[in-house]
Design goal:
- The structure holds two protein chains of two kinds.
- By secondary structure, chain A is mostly helical.
- Chain A has helices at about 1-20, 30-55, 60-80, 85-110, 115-130, 145-150, 160-175, 180-190, 190-195, 200-225, 240-250, 260-280, 285-310, 315-324; strands at about 135-140, 155, 155-160, 230.
- Chain A has one domain: ABC transporter involved in vitamin B12 uptake, BtuC (Orthogonal Bundle), CATH 1.10.3470.
- In chain A, helix 3 (about 60-80) runs antiparallel to helix 4 (about 85-110), helix 11 packs across helix 12 (about 260-280) and helix 12 runs antiparallel to helix 13 (about 285-310).
- Chain B is mainly alpha-helical.
- Chain B has one domain (about 50-325): ABC transporter involved in vitamin B12 uptake, BtuC, CATH 1.10.3470.
- Chain B has 15 helices and two strands.
- Chain B has a two-stranded antiparallel ribbon.
- Classes of the chains: A mainly alpha, B mainly alpha.
- Chains A and B meet through helix 5, helix 11 and helix 13 of A and helix 7, helix 13 and helix 15 of B.
């Protein structure tokens, strides 16, 4: 937990630092705006983390988001009367289907995840163009109900924040308090030992890639309805931002290491940087260079802490053993 | 109990005997078949495809990427990867643009390109080998950093003041209609292929990929070789940037966007194992032709670039899945 506290302190310092330059940034409404903007990154980073835990990677996550968003928009244009709950369910299901396709190739055929998702990244992106015949769908093609969801508010927070909070809570319970979630840490930490304990890598892979697809699908609908546009380039390159959020949050690319608060803080850090730059009169062109430098700094810090943290798996048990 | 003339109990051959069945199932053979299918299909579909001049001109579109893929392939062999190659192209092109505005000639620009490219590669190499960080994360970070610096320096501007000599190299031919970039790629492929398959260094590279720890215990300077390959990848990206900048005559922040994934795709389709320790340069060169000619043929038929990407992504997956499925099917029949 210590590194999450450090990360939280850094995020807080960042907010305070920006606030000193531009007090308007730290007003509640502005900060809530940052939170809403970052909702997608929160959810996608958690989904990616589950994949990274198993020593995999999902590079198709943003392409899945864009394709599912387009499908949702097309369904809405073709049948504006269909209730939004159905569209939402369809988006989650469609995204999960795309994820399951990844899962079948990775878990079923044993092709390395980076290769499979690199291929499906190109396929899903291109399919957007194919199914929409190259057209752009704008808010004019979407029904008011379709566009209303991200604008809805409850207790002063946008629905996006609530959905992200719900997804975060679900991931927290899943990863920390279910045997299925702990199995992900087991296969990532030591696949051979996990196999001897009856935890099957292929099965866990099947779960995480489908799950990652489902979250991407959910975000796909929300993204398109929030920004009111669907075309082949939405969220392009976002998969690397998602991986970056995980790395900054202390998730190990080598598998088995990562926490829900860590991934959320990593995403929040990037979200604040993106939103703060224009406020403090720094050219938004700096954003990419800064996130690059931060990723490198984070991975250097990670490698130092992983060395000691890797051995202390059960501090309680060790303490108990020491006291005997 | 005479000591002399006892025949050796086991005869250890230098190499396994060559068998036709093994040669037929080699990855390179599959690629040759794919290449033949590509050529045959495109020839049937378009009367403009099978024309030596057209085909040689088509190489303009993939030679630079192919150079980069050679460096990436070597890194994948040693279990590393370089996702920053396209960002290095952007940074190199920026450096070239700035020095060209100061009045540098084409050869001075080549020196700048190789210097900046090599330096970027050295940064990647130092972070991965000296600090022991995973290459994929390091190069995702440097990808953002390098392209980010180019973006900060360029903003929404473009640098276009390049000397004519550079444009002549980027767009020009050597001998009979062979583009300079393509000729350079072929020479590089031969040199790197020779180095990887016929020298001690090449065997060491495979040894690292097969088992880095065992290689280290066998006296292979693992860190130094990996560092050298990162620098090589940077140099090749710099060289590609030199040709690319000369070909399009301008530098924008989004130059060579997404090429890192194309380079990885070429390497993997070429049979370089993502797990390291296996693959051939011949396979990579064949994959360059398969992908390059497929793209060329489809664009002759006015298929949009993004749709071509669907087919290339599909090709990558089918090429990997088909042998696995075929093997399973054969095993079930037995």
């Amino acid at each position: 937990m210590r590194r999450e506290i450090w990360l939280a302190a850094i995020v807080l310092a960042l907010v305070v630092g920006v606030g000193l330059r531009a007090p308007a940034f730290v007003t509640p409404s502005s900060l809530l705006g940052v939170l809403s903007d970052t909702s997608f990154l929160f959810m996608l980073a958690l989904a990616e983390m589950a994949v990274l835990l198993t020593r995999g990677i999902d590079l198709s996550i943003a392409a899945n988001l864009a394709l599912t968003g387009m499908v949702a928009a097309l369904v809405n244009r073709a049948a504006p009367g269909v209730p939004i709950a159905v569209v939402l369910g369809l988006a989650v299901g469609f995204g999960a289907g795309l994820g399951a396709f990844n899962a079948a190739l990775i878990a079923g055929l044993g092709i390395p995840p980076i290769v499979v998702t690199l291929g499906t990244l190109a396929i899903y992106r291109g399919l957007i163009f194919v199914i929409a015949h190259g057209a752009w769908l704008t808010s004019k093609d979407m029904s008011p109900a379709f566009l209303a969801v991200p604008k809805a508010e409850f207790l002063g927070l946008s629905s996006l924040v609530w959905i992200a909070a719900g997804v975060s809570l679900a991931f927290w319970v899943y990863l920390n308090h279910t045997s299925a979630g702990r199995a992900l840490y087991a296969v990532g930490g030591n696949p051979v030992a996990a196999r001897y304990c009856g935890v099957d890598l292929a099965r866990q892979q099947g779960v995480v890639y489908t799950l990652s697809g489902a979250v991407a699908g959910l975000c796909g609908y929300l993204w398109v309805s929030r920004y009111g546009i669907a075309y082949s380039d939405i969220a392009i390159g976002y998969e690397l931002t998602v991986v970056a959020a995980c790395v900054i949050g202390g998730v190990s690319i080598a598998g088995g290491v990562g926490t829900v608060p860590g991934a959320l803080l990593g995403a929040l850090f990037l979200g604040i940087v993106v939103n703060a730059l224009p406020v403090i009169d720094v050219s938004p062109f700096w954003q990419m260079a800064i996130s690059g430098a931060v990723i490198l700094a984070a991975v250097i810090v990670n490698s130092r802490s992983e060395k000691s943290a890797g051995k202390l798996i059960l501090p309680e048990a060790r303490r108990a053993a020491g006291s005997v | 109990m005479s000591e002399a003339a006892a025949p050796p109990r086991y005869a250890v051959a230098d190499r396994a005997p060559r068998r036709w069945s093994e040669a037929a199932l080699r990855w390179e053979t599959i690629l040759v078949v794919l290449l033949a299918l590509t050529v045959a299909g495109n020839t049937a579909l378009s009367p403009y495809f099978l024309d030596l001049g057209n085909l040689l001109d088509a190489t303009f579109n993939f030679s630079e990427k192919a150079m980069i893929a050679l460096g990436v392939a070597l890194l994948i062999v040693v279990r590393d990867i370089d996702l920053s190659v396209a960002a290095i192209v952007a940074l190199v092109s920026l450096a070239m643009g700035l020095t060209a505005e100061a009045g540098a000639g084409a050869w001075a620009l080549l020196a700048v390109a190789l210097g900046v490219g090599g330096a970027c590669g050295a940064v990647n190499g130092a972070l991965t080998t000296a600090l022991g960080l995973p290459a994929i994360v390091v190069t995702i970070g440097t990808m953002s950093l390098f392209r980010g610096v180019a973006q900060v320096a360029l903003g929404d501007q473009a640098l276009t003041k390049y000397p004519d000599a550079l444009l002549a190299v980027g767009q020009g031919y050597v001998g009979y209609n062979v583009p300079w970039s393509f000729a350079t790629f072929l020479v590089l492929a031969l040199v790197i292929g020779f180095g990887l398959h016929m020298t001690t260094l090449g065997r060491r590279i495979f040894a690292i990929g097969a088992n880095p720890v065992a290689a280290r215990f066998s006296g292979v300077p693992v860190a130094r070789i990996r560092f050298g390959l990162f620098v090589l990848s940077g140099l090749l990206s710099g060289l590609a940037a030199w040709f690319l900048t000369g070909r399009i005559g301008s530098t924008r922040p989004n130059i060579a966007m997404g090429w890192e994934l194309e380079a990885v795709t070429v390497a993997i389709l070429g049979g370089i194992s993502i797990a390291g320790g296996a693959g051939t340069i011949a396979g990579v060169v064949l994959a360059v032709f398969v992908l390059g000619l497929t793209t060329f043929g489809l664009s002759l038929m006015n298929v949009p670039g993004i749709v071509i990407n669907v087919l290339l992504g599909g090709l990558l997956i089918v090429a990997l899945a088909a042998p696995i499925l075929a093997r399973r099917w054969l095993e079930r029949r037995r």
